[in-house]
Each structure stands twice: as C-alpha cells, then as structure tokens.
Amino acid sequence: MRSMVRGTTVVADTFATMSIFTRIIRGEIPCHRILENELVIAFLDVNPLSPGHALVVPKEEREQLHQLSQASASALGAALPRVAAAILRSTGATAYNVLQNNGAMAHQAVMHVHFHVIPRFEDGRGLGLAWKASPLDAASGAALAKRIAAELDPA
Ligand code: 5GP
Question: What spacing in Å lies between the alpha carbon of 64 and ligand 1's midpoint?
C-alpha cells in the first residue's frame, strides 16, 4: 500500500514538472512539426507573432540555455539556420528575429529551452522590440568583458 502511494506521488511529481514541450516531444500532444532528429524538434508556435513563427527545441529537458549539454547546443546550432532558411523560402519573408528567453523575468513562459524563429513582414507582423540601449564606456566595458571571460567554462 505504502509503495503504491509512493509510486503515485512519483508519477504526479513527474507530470507536474514536465513541460508542454516534453509532452510534444513524447508525441502526447500534437504539433505542426517542421524538423525532428535525435536531439532537436522544430514546430510551429501555436500562438504566432507572424506566419511561420516556429520554435526550435532541444529534446534534452533543461529550463535555460546555459544548462544544455554540448551535444544539444551543437544540434540546436545546426538546426536553427536550416529552419530559418526554410521559413524564409516558404513564407517569402526576407527578415526574421531569433529570440530565446531565459527565466520568467525575461518573458519565458514555457520552462523548457526553446528558440523562436519569427519572420518579420513589411506590414509590421513579427517581433516588436523595445530596445532601450545606452552607450558602454570603454573602461567599464574592458573590466566587465574580462570578468565575464574569467567565468567561461572550458570549451
Ligand atoms: P516563451 O515566452 O516561453 O519564450 O514562449 C513560449 C511559446 O510557446 C509561446 O510563443 C507560446 O505560444 C508557445 N506555446 C505554448 N504552448 C504551446 C503548445 O502547446 N504548442 C505550441 N506549438 N506552442 C506552444
């Protein structure tokens, strides 16, 4: 009896933490698939910003980009240009944005790594951007780049 209760708890926990994209990868819910291989799947976003808006997703279950294995990162890198080129050819778009959100504060809603490929059209359909930049001063830029470089994991 006790083990049954434990078993039920484990299943419930697994289900609770499983993202919608894991369920798509497992074939439990449908998607409009564009590409699939051993490590990556790409499919149309269910709520697109423009026609052709697609998501490129590693099968590895990780929330944020920096948590991915080298193998998944490489496979994503290989898939993204192929998917982008196919979207351009099939939609007639000539411009696009690649967006990748990490963390709720950065607008991530599905906690499973994914890249958006979003075609941009003359009429404004696509990704709207508010880019509030300010100039980087040379001294703090040099210090910051050095600090970040010192934190790099080995390639
Ligand atoms: P985020 O804000 O996390 O970067 O974006 C998540 C994206 O996933 C959204 O653009 C949303 O429309 C898309 N999405 C959420 N649930 C589903 C789904 O069940 N199927 C598909 N194809 N896309 C989804």
Answer: 15
